Known about the structure:
Blueprint: H1 3-14, H2 16-28, H3 42-66, H4 69-76, H5 83-104, H6 114-142, H7 163-179, H8 182-210, H9 212-220
Amino acid sequence: MTPETSIRLRYLGALAPLAYLGIALLCLRQWGTGHPWSKIDVYCGGFFLLNTLLILYEFTVNRSILRHREVLREASGSNYDSGTVTLGPVQLFLDLSVFLCYGHGSSALVFANPMPRGVGLAGYGVGVLCLLWTDTVLMRHFEGGLSNRELMTTGPYGIVRHPRYASLLLAKVGFALIFGNIFGWASVAFSLFLTERRIRLEEAHLWGLFAEKYGIYARHTSRLLPRLY
């Protein structure tokens, strides 16, 4: 495989979440009816709009590291956590089950109350904004390559050690509230499992890179929730 082909594949991979959104929309479509998109209300629409903006922004911000395979592996964590790729289809199955249940499940399975859905959309929006902030800082950190790296302790990393995972979990809870069914909370539970696993692997990796400097940082910051955890 030529370097140019490898870069093109990484670009396509970065845009793969758009395909996920397309499949999610198909799960919500009311086939064979006069109102095929009746399930797309302000809450669902807000979810899809926020996701589209997030994907496009992430693609723009990440373009500089997509050209460098080793930098991308370090930034994504795939060099110390290959297992998440294996477990990813489970998360995908749970998320698509959320859309299918919301679009085609019975009223006994879907608890679509406007108040929690509004709270969920607001929480999802906050999670996306925090994720954008964190990823902007993260990508600037990796723009200089892997040599002479410094431990990140400012910006969102001055608040908690893993602001990206905290943002994703907040968004995941918002997702569960927006679509209001049991599969959403199963997805939250599985995300918690993946996050705990990922944090253990990442912190071991960072200990290896920064030694006691990371230990000092870890003693003065919480993992996900300031002063709580």
